[in-house]
Amino acid sequence: MNEEFLKCRLGFIGNSDGSAYVSQCKTTVAVSVVGPFEPKSSKCLYDRGTVDVTFRRKTGSITVHDKMLEGIMQSTCEEALIVEQYPRTSIAVTVQEMQDRGNLLATCLNASCLALMDSGISMHHLFAAISCAITDSEEIILNPDELQINSSVAYFTLVFSSSESRQLLTSHTTGKFSHSIYLQCMDKCFAATREVFSFYENMIKKQLIYC
Amino acid sequence: MLSMEFNNVVLPSNDVSHIILKGDICKKNEKIIGPGLKIVDNKIFVCNSGVLKCKDEKLFWVEYRKKKYSPAKDDIVIGIVAAKTSEMYKVDIGASELATLPYLAFTNATKKNRPDIKLGNVIAAKIKMATPYMESEISCVEYANSIILGQLENGFLITVNLNYALQLRKSNSKLLYHLGQFVPYEIVIGANGKIWIKSASVRTTIAIGNVILKAEHLKEEDIPLLIKNFNKSLNV
């Protein structure tokens, strides 16, 4: 992983409460957070806030697979936010795909975490997503590119929280793999999240100096 | 890992109990924690990313950027009347939902003598009740020594960042003082980031609004230059 791996701009949308434009390798997404606001009464929960994630493709309407990505992002965000602090409200997270060259889910998750941080909504912890691919020879590649993903036998996206103890928030896997490989991947990805968290910290430092 | 100290950046899930309590658990009752901090299992955790601040070794809070206003009791806010019912007004104060303003919550208002406020009018009010579980209630009743509340007429409303509004509300704000040396003007700064300005002409009102918006990202040293330019633009 080199320095060019993650790039981000916070607060680039004036009208939304928080926004982030993130590129991870060659994949780029834009995320905006609006809220907490008063939702329709049918969506309103009396003891907690709801998180609404909308995913948008560059062109065309979204597919069933994209709906699944929305679901993954929603459950991860809801876990990280202190939803009990915002009862009877809704928080809308809109993720716009700008360019997809592999690792889309990981980029979307990291971008939504940065946008939520920018919006100032209370969070239990931050989260960082890392993707990895397993080759035929059981080799683990972190942040693979498109070719490496296509030629891999298994592909994982793992999300860890920033708490001091190791907490796996979300795991999305495709392909065949053994139990030991999965544990190895978890170790490697967890080590890699440290870099993402230090990137988050630098972003916040930059943002506070700017204002 | 980051070194956690005062005036340093902290991130959610950081445990700051050791720097706030300094291992002195018996003095716990003397410490007060504010926004951005919460207690879980006798430990103090950060829940907003920002800078950890401390005052007199007693008050602790996290300073972070935020755009959405969340009502707090006794804040002075500026709102726009959005709806009217038979008993109360509904006022948009920029929070997650509309605040209620009863007809009787005005100075000298009675059941017969109702205030005459229309939809879209701007009012300054004080928050009487704020809880996330109910609509917040605001009131325009003035007490002795309180600031003047009620309808704001013939002015101009701008919206700024919440942190910037709080900065301007501090009495040592140089910008407002220097502006006042060139043009007389009235200003009301709400804790919800809405600023109402009124001066003799529309031209100066808009100019003042622009100066306030421009000064947000300027340093203290650059403000005199901005005000000089502002004065030039008025005399054209």
Automatic annotation (TrEMBL), chain A:
InterPro entries from the UniProt entry: ExoRNase_PH_dom1 (IPR001247), ExoRNase_PH_dom2_sf (IPR036345), PNPase/RNase_PH_dom_sf (IPR027408), Ribosomal_Su5_D2-typ_SF (IPR020568), RNase_PH (IPR050080)
A GO molecular-function annotation: RNA binding
Subcellular location, record wording: Nucleus
Keywords: Exosome, Nucleus, rRNA processing
A single BP term in Gene Ontology: nuclear mRNA surveillance
Domain Exoribonuclease phosphorolytic residues, every copy: 6-121
Family indicated by similarity: Belongs to the RNase PH family.
Phylogenetic classification of the source organism: Eukaryota, Metazoa, Ecdysozoa, Arthropoda, Hexapoda
Record's GO cellular component terms: cytoplasmic exosome (RNase complex); nuclear exosome (RNase complex); nucleolus
Major site of localization recorded for this protein: nucleus
PANTHER family: EXOSOME COMPLEX COMPONENT, EXOSOME COMPLEX COMPONENT RRP46
Pfam families the UniProt entry points to: RNase_PH
Lineage top rank: taxon: Eukaryota
Gene expressing this chain: EXOSC5
Protein name, entry field: Exosome complex component RRP46
CDD domains listed in its UniProt record: RNase_PH_RRP46 (cd11372)
UniProtKB/TrEMBL annotation, chain B:
Keyword set includes RNA-binding: yes
Source taxon at top rank: Eukaryota
Record keywords: Cytoplasm, Exosome, RNA-binding
Principal place of residence: nucleus
A GO BP annotation: U4 snRNA 3'-end processing
Signal peptide positions on this chain: none
GO molecular function per UniProt: RNA binding
A cellular component annotation (GO) from this entry: nuclear exosome (RNase complex)
Domain K Homology residue range list: 155-202
InterPro entries the UniProt entry points to: Exosome_RNA_bind1/RRP40/RRP4, KH_dom_type_1, KH_dom_type_1_sf, NA-bd_OB-fold, RRP40_KH-I
Localization in the cell: Nucleus
Name of the protein in its database record: Exosome complex component RRP40
Gene field: LOC112683253
